[in-house]
User: What shape does this take?
Amino acid sequence: MKKEKEELVECPQCKEQKEKYWVEKHGVCYWCHDKNAEEKWLEHTKKETVEKGSSFNEDCIICPYCGYVCSEDDLHESTDTYCDGCEKEFHLEVEYTPHYSTSKLEKK
Ligand SMILES: [Zn+2]
Ligand SMILES: [Zn+2]
Assistant: This one.
């Protein structure tokens, strides 16, 4: 079967030529749609963090006072740290998901 060439159309958000069916269905291209969803999620998470006064297991460091996303540089272990946005001090708990490595024991 001959593969038909994707029809392209300009995405109104990034102004790039993208798959027509996606742009027509969602109003923007796949990448913009993804980016918007991520931003929406982050906005939601920030709001929730401020409301609860804490965040749990997030991909980024969100200040529990103002929702500012702090830079992760040099923060590899649990510590008290300052928010870059409101300059309040908060406790940061760094969690690591365990990874497993296995190897054979050499029989002597
Ligand atoms: Zn786009
Ligand atoms: Zn803050």
In short: The first helix runs from residue 20 to 26. The longest strand covers residues 79-82. The pocket of zinc ion (ligand 1) is lined by residues 11, 13-14, 16, 18, 28-29, 31-32 (CB under 6 Å). The two ends are 59 Å apart (CA to CA).
